[in-house]
Amino acid sequence: MRRIRDLSLVVSISLVVLCLFVGGALAYNESPMLAALVEEGVLPPVEERLPLEPLVIEPLDEIGVYGGTLRTATIEPNSPSSDGHSHIRIPYLFWVDPDSGQIIPYIAKGYEFTDDNRTLTIFLREGLKWSDGHPFTADDIMFWWEDVILNDELTPVKPAIWRPGGELARFEKVDDYTIRIHFAVPFQPIMSYLAYWGSRQGNMFHPKHYLKKWHINYNPQANELARQEGFEFWYQAFGNHRTIGPGQSDLDLPTINPWVITARRPNRIVLQRNPYYGAVDPAGNQLPYIDEITVEVLERETMVIRASSGDLDICGMNLEISDIPVLKENEERGDYRVHLWPSTVPAEIGIGFNLSHKDPKLREVYQQAKFRQALSLAINREEINDLVFFGLGVPMQATVHPTNSFYKEEWAQSYAQYDPDRANQLLDELGLERGPSGWRRHPDGTALTVAIDYSASLPFANSVLELVQSYWEAVGIHTVLSSHERSLYTTMAQAGEIGVAVWHTDRMMESRVNLPDMTKFNPGSSDIPWAYAWKQWLNTDGAQGMEPSGPAAEAFMEFMNAFQAWYTVETEEDYQRLADEIWSSQAENLWIIGTVGLSQRPIVSSNRLHNFPETRPWGDDMGWWRIAYPEQWFIK
């Protein structure tokens, strides 16, 4: 099918084939920083630190030089949406090549589908090592599967992605560098997941040699150890130590990333090169080129000032279009470039009403498709695009990316016209009459207030939502906005405390969109939890959450069943048919309401940073900074 290409082939080549011989032996080079440690006897020679067949990354423009410190910043160090350093440093086992669209090996060596796409074999790179020098093997994947995923205390609800056809996958260790995964049904889309977040550290492998002392299966005293560290149970301590990326507290946790965190303070994070990173350039130079990354924790306004002063080498995660004038004005003085990268996000601000709201009256109102349609029609998207996005976005409904093979323009236009008269008519038909104050009330006459919660780190949120608030209040809906720190927002979402949620609708390109638990149209997402308790009920076979009931329940179940069937289809015909059913449902029911999408995003790069592309698609679909291959950036 179109979303995944050539999956029947064995994919086992590196990005470039490398064979450099000097006197019959492979010749590699390394950073002077590491060469000094080899000389001191602290590190083994570079040849012993690299895998037998390292990943080879072709530089964008030229072979780089070693050294230097990359300066960047974040506004929320514990948020993946603004945590630039995590997107710079975290690679995956597999990757979607941005030029060909094909899934290629990255940290892994290759993969093969057999048994009519029911069996996936993954080949690892022999000799690949963790950042502490310990071998990375199939045991690290089996540890994640057998001791984390299959452990009910660590993973009480098994991930839906590993239960295609309703049956949990089976993992088999073939040898130290080969894993075989057996599925009950043909499951090609798993590679889209593994070429994304699904195959990074924490989501498919853990350093077993390091973490097992906190696991009860390997250490009978794990609970006692946990209590010594201030935790009540072993699995709490284990969860703390295994966390990587945003929120990482254990700086000794081994990784296979190009850089590792060496210092973490409230206002600053420092990362240094991983001496065991398993990649080189075509000349045999071990990557990355850059020795160190510093991440300052700043307020957004301060970040813009620092970027426009030339104090940051890259900046983009939290820049907004409104920042372009000041960035361009100072471009020459600050010795940097301003790029406009096209966003992959169809809804830069997506709004989801919680259909499983704890308040029965709000639940009844929010489940009415007419209510969601009315509030969508009340939004002036053209004005939002002009005022917030400077005309660089596309006023549209939340839907899939236009590059999808099944895309229909009518989905992007559904209830996306500014029509406050029609909005008022629909609200009247629902019996939501205005009281003396002008605000609409519930049918029983009690006050109706729509409370919108959002993360302070979400780009464009404040500006767009203040306009949305004014549009909704113009049709009589009393609207309250509440901004939260990202971790609190996530906690509220998972507790079912968010009535109206806001995030962007990324992961809508064809390589991602048919993974039901990956897109923002997953009602159990902590980004836009538009039916969190209902999805929890489905995930746990009714043990937790809330059984779907009410005006939206039937359409919701049809949507979910179609989505679940979509990612295990075997024919192109079924793929296209189910895609049309799913996204036509979104167009009519507006599970998520869109505003403006596909904008241009300002990206700043200093002139001392090289091998940095002029343009790339910008968004979670393409791994944010990962699409630019940070390993091959260099400073000169």
What does this structure look like?
With 636 residues, the protein is an alpha+beta fold. It has 3 domains: 19-52 and 65-73 and 257-343 and 601-636, Periplasmic binding protein-like II (D-Maltodextrin-Binding Protein, domain 2); 74-242, Alpha-Beta Complex (Dipeptide-binding Protein, domain 1); 350-597, Dipeptide-binding Protein, Domain 3 (Dipeptide-binding Protein, domain 3), CATH 3.10.105. The chain is 28% helix and 17% strand. It has 21 helices and 25 strands. The strands form 9 sheets. The protein has a 4-stranded mixed beta sheet. Helix 17 links the parallel strand 19 and strand 20. The protein is globular and about 80 Å long. The two termini are 44 Å apart. Mean pLDDT is 91; it is low at 1-24.
Query: Radius of gyration from the CA trace?
Result: 25 Å
How much of the residues is beta strand, in percent? 15-25%
Structural class: alpha+beta
Question: What is the β-strand count?
Answer: 25
SSE blueprint:
Blueprint: E1 21-22, E2 25-26, H1 32-39, H2 46-49, E3 55-56, E4 69-74, H3 84-89, E5 94-96, E6 103-105, E7 110-114, E8 119-123, H4 138-149, E9 170-175, E10 178-182, H5 190-194, H6 208-211, H7 222-228, H8 234-242, E11 259-265, E12 268-273, E13 279-280, E14 292-297, H9 300-308, E15 314-315, H10 324-329, H11 331-334, E16 336-342, E17 350-353, H12 360-366, H13 369-377, H14 381-387, E18 394-395, H15 409-413, H16 420-429, E19 449-455, H17 461-474, E20 478-484, H18 486-494, E21 500-503, H19 532-539, H20 553-566, H21 572-589, E22 596-597, E23 600-606, E24 609-610, E25 634-635
Parallel strand pairs: 3-13, 4-14, 19-20, 19-21
Antiparallel strand pairs: 1-2, 5-6, 7-8, 8-10, 9-10, 11-12, 12-14, 15-23, 16-23, 17-21, 18-22, 24-25
Helix pairs in contact: 7-8, 13-16, 20-21
